[in-house]
From TrEMBL:
Recorded superkingdom: Bacteria
Organism listed in the record: Larkinella bovis
Keywords for this protein: Signal
Keyword Signal among record annotations: yes
Protein name, entry field: DUF4468 domain-containing protein
Cleaved signal peptide residues: 1-19
Length: 561
């Protein structure tokens, strides 16, 4: 409740008693110096009103022109926000302005013109009609600020996590700022006290409303991002996740829309937003510590596998259901059956965990469900993909789904550990003994009748020892054709020998040194063109990987001989 200063000084009541020690003298001095100021074409009438608590006050300045037109400017603030070093006066034509700025020029002063709320400001401006009064007003304002600094104490907030949660839940509420209204609520999950939801609805001057919902874990927040900013007429307290990770679910008008890293609590009162910030400043370290204590340690492959397998569960929305299962061995299979608008889709992905990027698990949103995208190293198309029983081209990414963010909280860490362990445990099946053993192993891997319309068979034979080979490619269909390559391994480049993917197919490429056309070919028994590259099609990525490795070893041993 506000009272004019002079009346407030005269009344002996509890309000006066509370404020008397610190504020009575300084405020009385300011009130005395706020005299009417007459200029050449206008007059200023000024007054100060004190509020409870006693460090808050309202300055009003009414300017009336010689034609009778009046304009009132009003400043409402916590006097301790003013910076003593900025209090000064300045001649402005036929009047002297007395000014005080806020500390660090923070726009914490509520300002209105003729009763209409304007943007927050960082300055209070008063007037005097002679230098003596201006100097006296400057000194009185400095005393007021000093008294307010001693008097102002932020609201004492609790110290325990549970009490802080309850305090924030109670104190974050609706705000009316000018013609705008904000409905705000912070709630917590009963089963997981670290899980929170912040809802905010904004109703504009024309009555239009929009709602936003942020779901997050208290332990994901960072003190570094906790800051108060001014946005026009309102103050916003930003809460940000650690390293600005996108770990907050964001819903617009009730529909999941995105994952974000920040949200804002709104207020029109600097003291209130400061108190709320103080509570968050206490709560965040406690929540981070508690979440850290619950964090699983993926020290072994079985632990990572168990988490990954148990985290990938059914995900549902009103019109969408995804049944999914992950078998997280190093050679991994992900099966996904989705029903959406009465359409059914089944997808199967097969891949080697060691082929995934260690930091490749990325959280996102798709049609009101959370997604966890997994991608391969260097975006190589090493993931086998089948849709509705039909084999598709290899892909470089896949998406897991979740309707609860907490279910997949540690997905990226589990994937990272599994990728590392699979890479370390990867063992090559290529024989390490003789050239003949490697050659025999390659022969066993070469496909028989690969393909549907035109089945292709590969056969490898020695021509003169293990360094001169003949590769026969027989292609069936309506007409059978045969292509024979004479491979002199000493002419091949081991470093250029590799495997790759082309659409649905995996190939091992054998390339000559300098890509010279040194490989003689015979087509259907007749000599044909020399070539520099020979491609062998394999049935899957793993065969392609190790057949390429075996050929590299064969070539290197032949070159060294």
């Amino acid at each position: 409740m506000k009272k004019p200063v002079l009346i407030w000084l005269a009344v002996t009541c509890s309000v006066a008693a509370n404020a008397q020690d610190l504020m009575t003298g300084p405020l009385a001095g300011v009130s005395t110096q706020l005299q009417p100021v007459k200029t050449g074409n206008a007059q200023f009438i000024q007054k100060i009103e004190a509020s409870q608590p006693n460090y808050r006050a309202t300055f009003s300045v009414t300017k009336t022109s010689d034609k009778g037109k009046g304009d009132e400017s009003t400043y409402f603030l916590n006097l301790s926000d003013l910076d003593i070093s900025t209090v000064t006066y300045k001649v402005e034509r036929d009047v002297i302005a007395v000014m005080a700025d806020t500390k660090q020029h923070r726009k914490f002063v509520r300002y209105s013109e003729n009763g209409e709320l304007k943007n927050l400001t960082d300055r209070v401006k008063l007037y005097a009609d002679n230098p003596d009064i201006a100097k006296a007003l400057v000194e009185s304002l400095k005393k007021v600020i000093q008294a307010a600094e001693k008097s102002y104490k932020p609201t004492r907030t609790p110290d325990t996590l549970d009490e802080l949660r309850q305090w924030l839940k109670t104190n974050i509420g609706n705000e009316a700022i000018g013609s705008d209204k904000y409905e705000q609520a912070l709630t917590f999950d009963y089963d997981n006290p670290l899980r929170a939801v912040f809802r905010r609805s904004e109703v504009g001057a024309k009555g239009s409303a929009s709602s936003e919902t942020f779901s997050f874990n208290l332990g994901d927040l960072a003190l570094e991002g906790l800051q108060i900013e001014t946005k026009g007429k309102r103050l916003e307290l930003s809460l940000v996740t650690q390293q600005k990770q996108k770990l907050m679910g964001y819903a617009k008008d009730g529909k999941l829309d995105n994952v974000v890293h920040t949200f804002e609590v709104i207020s029109g009162d600097a003291d209130k937003i400061r108190d709320i910030a103080g509570a968050w400043r206490k709560l965040i370290p406690l929540a981070v510590k508690q979440l850290e204590s619950r964090k699983p340690v993926f020290a072994t492959m079985p632990v990572a596998q168990k988490y990954l397998e148990s985290s990938v569960t059914s995900a549902k929305t009103n019109d969408r259901t995804i049944e999914q299962a992950l078998k997280p061995d190093c050679i991994c299979t992900y099966t996904r059956r989705e029903t959406y608008n009465k359409n059914n889709t089944e997808e199967v992905y097969e891949f080697n965990l060691a082929d995934l990027a260690e930091k490749g698990a990325k959280l996102g949103v798709d049609k009101e469900l959370y997604t966890i995208e997994l991608k391969t190293r260097d975006n190589r198309r090493f993931i086998g993909y089948t849709k509705n029983g039909v084999r598709q081209s290899y892909v470089s990414t896949l998406e897991l789904a979740a309707d609860n963010l907490e279910n997949v909280r540690y997905m990226s860490q589990a994937v990272e550990k599994a990728v590392q362990l699979c890479a370390l445990s990867r063992k090559s099946p290529v024989p390490t003994g003789s050239q003949q053993a490697r050659l025999d192993w390659i022969k066993e891997q070469l496909p028989k009748d690969l393909g549907e319309k035109e089945p292709t068979t590969y056969a490898l034979a020695t021509d003169n020892g293990t360094c001169d080979l003949k590769l026969t490619v027989t292609q069936g269909g309506k007409k059978t054709s045969e292509l024979v390559y004479d491979l002199a391994l000493k002419d091949l480049n081991a470093d250029a020998t590799n495997f790759d993917v082309d659409g649905k197919n995996v190939y091992v490429s054998l390339v000559t040194k300098g890509k010279e056309k040194l490989v003689k070919t015979h087509k259907d028994g007749k000599p044909s063109d020399y070539v520099h590259t020979v491609k062998i099609q394999l049935g899957d990525i793993e065969k392609g990987r190790y057949v390429a490795e075996a050929f590299k070893q064969l070539i290197r041993n032949c070159v060294s001989n």
